[in-house]
Amino acid sequence: MDKDEPIRLYDMTDYYIGLGLALSSSGFIGASFIIKKKALVQISLGSGRRAANGGYGYLSNWLWWFGLSMMGFGEVFNFAAYAFAPASVVTPLGALSVIVAAILSSKYLNEQLNLLAKIGCFMCIIGSTVMVIHSPKEETVDSLEDLLQKLTEPGFIIYTSIMLIIIFSIFFYFGPRYGSSNVIVYVIMCSTSGSLTVMWCKGLGLAIRETIAGTSEFTNWLTYMFIVLLITFVCIQMNYLNKALDTFNTSVVTPVYYVMFTTLVITASAILFKEWEHLQLNDIIGIICGFLITVTAIFMLNTFRDVDMSRSHFAWRTRQPITRKSTVEENAQTSALIKNNTQYGTRNV
What we know:
The protein is mostly helical. It is built from 13 helices and no strands. The longest helix has 34 residues, at 12-45. 40% of the residues are buried.
């Protein structure tokens, strides 16, 4: 795209289609977390070898396949969303999958969802909305030729190299040694591969859109490279996500995965597509604030999930000043009695 050429905005119809697909994707993916976790719990209670220990017993479990199909629908919708809207819009909406997973886990996995967790869910919605409002609306890549040029720029090559080093390090060293004791290991593996998966999704979606528009891109070698890379990195994500879900609590895996995945996708998108170049300062601040609100909400959801707090506790705390006043008076009377008794005892001595 020439510098003198005006910035081409996304067609708003396509933009809203992308938002709708992203919302649907969050619903399917959030439900898939719970269904797959339920299947893995059934396997762990049986005689099958757990996924965390390298077992693949979940492949014979129909419930796990149902959860996988739900995730498949979610990923298809998510893939389509990237073809219609920028990655910095689609990715933050993944926070809604955290809300879906939290609500369903409290119902079907007997995991507590207290008042603070519900506030966290509400804050997730607010944070995601703020990010979407301030997200870039400019389309920076409109052909595979432009995309190929951006893929070969030094910034994205350095980013991809760092991600591949992390992936191979976890696969050969950190995963076997620390994966079963530290949730960060498996989640980093999912997030790094996921951030690259989004880039391949965006490229393949662009190829499909150009083909539908009349310019066949399935004669272009770049399209098939995107397909191979997409399948490879999705398989990596699925394998390590299963290990994380089987080893750690869903309320831990889901929010940590969202925070790391979103951060890396926004970083990769900013490097590759340069979506932030034409943003004004207030939009940049809005995106950062929205992301921090979402991260804070997810932290609340994770940290205070098991705290025993409900609306009845909150109502009790709002009435505390009255109780405290009477308590202070009782303490004052008690102190006076102790003082008198002390003085009386001193005189006797």
